[in-house]
């Protein structure tokens, strides 16, 4: 399949994938322990700006990628707002009870989900899978048999999609009716499963023949190293976090500083 998407590779692509993964995971846990909605709003806005201008993808594609996470933000925030608890009632109608406390808790929970989603988008859009697995092997000492197995699985996904389309076209040409839930599953699942088993067997034999199970020292086609982009990446993330905290504490949008 043709997955050629026009993009502009920014300096975020040059950052070491292992370092990027560790830093963003640390920021992920930091977001979980932020209870000041002002700080979380600032951090979410900063990550959104980084997502828009740091990934290098067209604006139309970024909108489609961001839309599901925005829907998660709306659904998460609204569910907490309408069915939360609190003492200052803003609106009540049947089971719906919106209070000041539930509103800000809902906004806080929604921005937390949005920030976590943006972290995942930034990492996935600016990290090449091949370099990620090579970096995991070289910097984090992941065993090659595991890294190459995951890499092979990633490479097989487009092939499986092509095979699904081939089976669908073959059934259409032969006039097989596209009806029936269980029968449709059997018509697609059996040939795809058979092809997957044969392909997995060939990959396993090839990896065994090249001694991927051996724990000895291996050479790598790509050597992933650290560079100046890694320093800039760490500085940027720390600066965003510090700036979001300082602005949220000293220049708050709302008077609530802890939603717990």
Task: Output the helix-strand order.
Answer: HHHEEHHHHH
Question: Which range best describes the helical content: under 10%, 10-25%, 25-40%, 40-55%, 55-70% or over 70%?
Answer: 55-70%
What's the structural domain tally? 2
Largest sheet: 2 strands, antiparallel
Tell me the total number of β-strands.
2
Count of helical regions: 8
Low-confidence stretches: none
Strand order of the largest sheet: 1-2
Specify the structural class: mainly alpha
Q: Which shape, going by the Cα principal axes?
A: globular
Average pLDDT for all residues: 81
Our Rg estimate from Cα atoms comes to 24 Å
CA-CA gap between termini = 49 Å
- Beta content comes to under 5%
Short description:
Helix content is 68%, strand content 3%.
Describe this structure in words.
With 260 residues, the chain is mainly alpha-helical. The protein has two domains: 11-128 and 227-250, no CATH class; 144-209, no CATH class. The chain is built from eight helices and two strands, in the order H-H-H-E-E-H-H-H-H-H. It has helices spanning 17-32, 37-54, 59-83, 100-125, 129-138, 144-173, 181-209, 228-250; strands spanning 89-93, 96-99. The protein has a two-stranded antiparallel ribbon with strand order 1-2. Helix 1 (17-32) packs antiparallel against helix 4. The termini are far apart. The relative contact order is 0.17.
């Amino acid at each position: 399949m043709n997955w050629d998407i026009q993009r502009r590779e920014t300096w975020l692509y040059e950052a070491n994938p292992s370092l990027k993964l560790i830093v963003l995971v640390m920021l992920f846990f930091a977001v979980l322990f932020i209870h000041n909605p002002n700080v979380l709003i600032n951090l979410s806005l900063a990550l959104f700006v980084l997502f828009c201008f740091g990934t290098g993808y067209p604006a139309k594609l970024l909108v489609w990628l961001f839309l599901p996470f925005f829907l998660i933000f709306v659904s998460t925030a609204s569910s907490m707002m309408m069915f939360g608890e609190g003492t200052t009632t803003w609106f009540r109608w049947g089971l719906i009870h919106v209070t000041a406390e539930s509103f800000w808790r809902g906004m806080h929970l929604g921005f937390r989900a949005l920030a976590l989603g943006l972290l995942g988008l930034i990492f996935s859009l600016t990290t090449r899978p091949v370099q990620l697995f090579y970096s995991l092997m070289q910097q984090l000492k992941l065993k090659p048999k595991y890294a190459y197995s995951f890499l092979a699985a990633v490479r097989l996904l487009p092939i499986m999609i092509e095979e699904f389309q081939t089976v669908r076209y073959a059934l259409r040409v032969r006039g097989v009716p596209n009806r029936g839930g269980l029968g449709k599953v059997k018509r697609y699942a059996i040939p795809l499963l058979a092809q997957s088993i044969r392909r997995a067997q060939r990959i396993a034999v090839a990896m065994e023949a090249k001694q991927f199970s051996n724990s000895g020292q291996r050479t790598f086609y790509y050597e992933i190293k650290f560079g100046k982009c890694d320093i800039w990446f760490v500085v940027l993330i720390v600066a965003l976090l510090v700036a979001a905290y300082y602005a949220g504490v000293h220049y708050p949008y709302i008077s609530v500083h802890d939603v717990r």
